[in-house]
Design goal:
disordered N terminus; FAD-binding protein; flavoprotein; single chain; FAD; four-stranded antiparallel β-sheet; 6 strands; about 30% helix
Length: about 210
């Protein structure tokens, strides 16, 4: 998978592990220009390339037929995606420079054929060409993932005052005072609710 900026060139490799992004190891949203798109082909639609390999594999395994992903919606008919039989036609629908999109797809496909992603160093087992029509494009739109922040808490789930001292009988868990203030980990909020909720309960019980 790759993303398309308004001017055409690749914007960001969005498939490497957390901690290896080009943002100093922090998990951040894609820096979007005026227009941003996910582009894939009919094979990507069938096997869920835009979902990530592991998610797609699990989805396939959980189906009775184990042949393809059955989408809950028709993205094209419902207006969420564009489709065309050629990259040139798709670029026109996306309102991006045709030559730039064609060149980007050609470079990507060459990387897939050679098994080496020289631009973003994506692992070879994650390289899949965008070559089987029809082709699709889905707008990449910002959204809020979570709301880490708030007051600071210590390892005992105690909320700290401005001097770093615990406030008596005040505890927190989850995103409220999250330890992931700058570097959020996937599923971290649920884990924090469980872990720090347990810690807070243990600390309160110990006071009785």
């Amino acid at each position: 998978m790759f993303t398309k900026g308004e001017e055409g060139p690749l914007s960001l490799h969005y498939g490497c592990r957390h901690g290896h992004q080009n943002f100093g190891g922090e998990w951040k949203m894609l820096p979007l220009p005026d227009k941003q798109w996910f582009v894939y082909d009919s094979e990507g639609k069938r096997y869920g390339a835009y979902m990530g390999k592991d998610v797609a594999n699990n989805t396939l395994q959980n189906q009775t037929e184990k042949t393809e992903i059955d989408p809950a919606i028709d993205a094209v008919a419902d207006g969420y995606a564009l489709t065309a039989d050629t990259i040139e036609e798709l670029a026109a629908l996306m309102e991006v420079p045709v030559d730039e999109l064609v060149n980007t797809v050609n470079v990507w496909n060459a990387s897939c054929e050679n098994g080496v992603d020289e631009q973003f160093h994506r692992p070879s087992d994650q390289l899949a060409p965008v070559s089987t029509p029809p082709f699709y494009a889905i707008p990449c739109i910002p959204e809020i993932l979570n709301t880490d922040g708030g007051p600071r808490r210590n390892e005992k789930a105690q909320i700290l005052d401005v001097d770093g001292e615990p406030i008596p009988n005040l505890y927190s868990s989850g995103e409220f005072g999250s330890i992931w203030a700058a570097k959020y980990q996937g599923s971290g909020n649920i884990t924090e609710c469980m872990v720090f909720g347990r810690i807070a309960a243990r600390e309160l019980i110990a006071k009785k």
